[in-house]
Automatic annotation (TrEMBL):
The modification 2-(S-cysteinyl)pyruvic acid O-phosphothioketal is found at residue 123. InterPro entries: Enolpyruvate_Tfrase_dom (IPR001986), Enolpyruvate_Tfrase_sf (IPR036968), MurA_subfamily (IPR050068), RNA3'P_cycl/enolpyr_Trfase_a/b (IPR013792), UDP_GlcNAc_COvinyl_MurA (IPR005750). This is UDP-N-acetylglucosamine 1-carboxyvinyltransferase. It comes from uncultured Sphingomonas sp. GO terms for molecular function: UDP-N-acetylglucosamine 1-carboxyvinyltransferase activity. It catalyses: phosphoenolpyruvate + UDP-N-acetyl-alpha-D-glucosamine = UDP-N-acetyl-3-O-(1-carboxyvinyl)-alpha-D-glucosamine + phosphate. The keyword Nucleus does not apply. Keywords: Cell cycle, Cell division, Cell shape, Cell wall biogenesis/degradation, Cytoplasm, Peptidoglycan synthesis, Pyruvate, Transferase. It is an enzyme of class 2 (transferase). Residues 7-414 form the Enolpyruvate transferase domain. Gene3D superfamilies: Enolpyruvate transferase domain (3.65.10.10).
Length: 427
């Protein structure tokens, strides 16, 4: 199994191109199921999760064709076509590998009138149920049965009908499933307390480009007027705000200066605010954002919340960076119940962090030290890479497959800005 080896201590300096957003890609790809015409996505990141999603789509009868990228370029184009839906079953071994597989539920139900999708079960960061996905679809008339670990959903008379649903908790995935289902339903759907993440706006923009009728984009109140059919289009995936934020933390923790090429400030205001509270200098230019260290990092207090709040997907990376701040920081995780899995590993690198339920106190230390550490989930893995970049000595991050799910060619991007980092294959 591959690992990432890092020799810490270099101040990173230079440009990092920001790839297409993983979480946007994973909700734009299932839109191929909504039409029998071709859907082409440009700027798709080269990630294991994108490949897994494309295999799932293949199993459902969607053809996928990838156009190669030239050396040194990032992103690629994928053309998908769901002429017919050959199968409406998303099996356990797919959903188990990648929870986002449940995002085929809404579009399959809308297009084929039925869908059978494995329940995802737990994952490293918590319980993560899909009850809200199912309740939202029920409000569109879906009939849902749970049996043998699967959700079996059907639309009476083959078509969903518009309805209103108010989310008791903001859910990105449930909002996405509901949107993809509602675009082809009869009549009007209103979603209240919908997620407002930029990836949801990206999804709405694609659905509108395909002929969908949606208003309220970017707000918590989405109104969808169902249409008879959608058509194909070509659409560019938005830049990855979490990747950009992660590399911003790399500039901070190494005392360096990085230009995040293609990053969009409006997608990441809370992250940028936190970076500047930490004492980092931010400069905005027409190609992206420059993040530069300016003396010691300052401690801060952060609480995760749905967009436009501070993203839970940035919590682990900020924690790594705050390990080097001069003073005590306070973090609170309000979205997932088990999202401090990186803490025991960071402690092995000399971090001083106390956990009290969903809160963490990060006592800044002068020195982090290299160690062999184990990645537990995607963002946790990135926090270990960040710590390794700043640590004295060598760090080896095991279980790199987590990183490959969400960071396109991480070691290439980091070595291009001065890091001593390489991928090592075991055996
Ligand atoms: C998405 C992102 C993930 C991010 C998360 C929160 C993708 C592929 N993943 O995950 O990177 O960390 O948003 O920003 O886009 N919940 C329920 N019932 C449900 C659904 C969710 O109780 O049916 C709860 C969850 O357990 C969690 C909260 O709602 O506590 C938010 O989860 P949600 O926004 O749905 O996360 P995902 O869509 O799974």
């Amino acid at each position: 199994m591959d690992s990432i080896w890092i020799k810490g201590g270099a101040r990173l300096k230079g440009e990092i191109p920001i790839s297409g957003a993983k979480n946007a890609a994973l909700t734009l790809m299932p839109c191929a199921l909504l039409t029998d015409e071709k859907l082409t996505l440009a700027n798709l990141p080269r990630l294991a999760d994108v490949d897994t999603f494309s295999h799932l789509l293949n199993q459902l009868g969607v053809s996928t064709k990838v156009e190669g990228v030239k050396p040194g370029e990032y992103g690629r184009r994928m053309t998908m076509r769901a002429g017919d839906i050959a199968s409406t079953i998303a099996p356990y071994d797919m959903v188990r590998k990648m929870r986002a597989s449940v995002l085929v539920l809404g579009p399959m139900l809308a297009r084929a009138g039925e869908a059978t999708v494995s329940l995802p079960g737990g994952c490293a960061i918590g319980d993560r149920p899909i009850d809200l996905h199912l309740k939202a679809l029920e409000s569109l008339g879906a009939e849902i049965e749970l049996a043998a670990g699967y959700v079996k959903a059907s639309a009476p008379k083959g078509r969903l009908s518009g309805g209103d649903f108010s989310f008791p908790v903001v859910s990105v995935g449930a909002t996405e499933n509901a949107l993809m289902a509602a675009v082809l339903a009869t009549g009007r759907t209103q979603l209240f307390n919908a997620a407002r993440e930029p990836e949801i706006v990206d999804l709405c923009n694609l659905l509108v480009a395909m002929g969908g009728k949606i208003t309220g984009m970017g707000s918590g109140h989405l109104v969808i007027d169902g249409v008879e059919r959608l058509h194909g289009t070509t659409y560019e995936v938005m830049p990855d705000r979490i990747e950009a934020g992660s590399y911003a933390c790399a500039a901070g923790i190494t005392g360096g200066s990085l230009d995040l090429i293609g990053a969009r400030p409006d997608d990441m205001r809370a992250t940028l605010h936190a970076l500047s509270q930490c004492g980092l200098i931010l400069e905005f230019h027409d190609r992206g954002i420059r993040v530069s260290a300016d003396g010691d990092l300052k401690p801060l207090a952060l609480s995760t919340s749905p967009f436009p709040g501070f993203a839970t997907d940035m919590q682990a990376q900020f924690m790594a960076m705050l390990c080097r701040a001069s003073g005590d920081s306070f973090l609170e995780e309000t979205i997932f119940e088990n999202r401090y899995m990186h803490v025991p590993e960071l402690r092995r690198m000399n971090a001083n962090v106390d956990i009290h339920g969903r809160s963490a106190i990060v006592h800044g230390v002068d020195t982090m030290t290299g160690a062999t550490v184990m990645a537990t989930d995607l963002r946790a893995s990135m926090s270990l890479v960040l710590a390794g970049l700043a640590a004295e000595g060598e760090t080896e991050v095991l279980r790199v497959y987590h990183l490959d799910r969400g960071y396109e060619r991480l070691e290439e991007k980091l070595s291009a800005v001065g890091a001593t980092i390489e991928r090592r294959s075991a055996g």
